[in-house]
Amino acid sequence: MVNQAPIPVVVNGAAGKMGREVVKAVSQASDMTLLGAVDRNPEYNGKDAGEVAGLSEPLEVPITDQLEPTLALATQERQLGVMVDFTHPSSVYDNIRAAIAYGIRPVVGTTGLSIEQIQDLAEFADKASTGCLLIPNFSIGMVLLQEAAVRASQYFDHVEIIELHHNQKADAPSGTAIQTAQMLAEMGKTYNPPSVEETEKLPGARGSVADEGIRIHSVRLPGLIAHQEVIFGAPGQIYTLRHDTSDRACYMPGVLLAIRKVTQLKSLVYGLEKLL
Ligand SMILES: NC(=O)C1=CN([C@@H]2O[C@H](COP(=O)(O)OP(=O)(O)OC[C@H]3O[C@@H](n4cnc5c(N)ncnc54)[C@H](OP(=O)(O)O)[C@@H]3O)[C@@H](O)[C@H]2O)C=CC1
Ligand SMILES: O=C(O)C1=N[C@H](C(=O)O)C[C@H](O)C1
Questions:
Q1: What percent of the chain is modeled with pLDDT above 70?
Q2: 238-244: long-range contacts at Cβ-Cβ below 8 A with a sequence spacing of 24 or more?
Q3: All domains of the chain, ordered by start, with CATH?
Q4: Residue 173 CB less than 6 A away from ligand 1
């Protein structure tokens, strides 16, 4: 049997809340090797990625703020590499383009990409025949919630989404809420037909209106991690679906699955549910 070389992985945003978890998970996966760790935060420049992630032993991978040289390094490996990105909505588009240009497959958790940017990235990945995964939520619980919501939408015409996150989150609504609304909108109906003429006494009181009349409300508070409710209403009944995260480790099985799967793809795929 031929020994498969471990998948070389570059973690971008390695010093962040998610990046640290990914550094731990990748370094503990026997079929992966942490090849590079990138983060723009100057506080961590030159520090060992493993120590920053809280591992007891150093990984001998210093954090650098130079993405492109790190991607170039990954191209020199026996097996082509993967870049996992948990950075910021303002930089994720350029990071993905850079990775694809180097032939490195992006696995992206960073949210905040516009529909136009996603379409453009899909074309770019297609032309380069490079796998690219955009995953708004890596937790299995959220995939199950979304499945249940799609099923419920066959029977309910009224639905609102509430997403609740820690107050360090840069984008609103969350990528997960946007994806959930898209899935419900794809069911081919318009939700929330008005029953009275409404006046918002304070702008935004009724939340934002996503596709097909679905409303999304965003809550930001210290003490929260990531939570989402999808609430369906009909005369005489309320059906509530809720997902809560209490530890970012919940995303890691999904991240590792995505790293393995992206090496077999030649185009862009959006959503963890497509990998299961
Ligand atoms: N798909 C999913 O399942 C999940 C997605 N997310 C998403 O992941 C993203 C990151 O979240 P989180 O880890 O909580 O955020 P953090 O702010 O904790 O971490 C982001 C890290 O990336 C760094 N960074 C920002 N921009 C760049 C850049 N251009 N190049 C290199 N490093 C950069 C930040 O540095 P600095 O501190 O200097 O800004 C920080 O160290 C968010 O978009 C969030 O919504 C989060 C959880 C789950
Ligand atoms: O910023 C976060 O924390 C999260 N972001 C993702 C999103 O915007 O949906 C996924 C999860 O909700 C955590």
A1: 99
A2: 239/152, 239/156, 241/145, 241/148, 241/149, 241/152, 242/145, 243/139, 243/141, 243/142, 243/145
A3: 7-134+249-275 (3.40.50.720), 140-245 (3.30.360.10)
A4: no
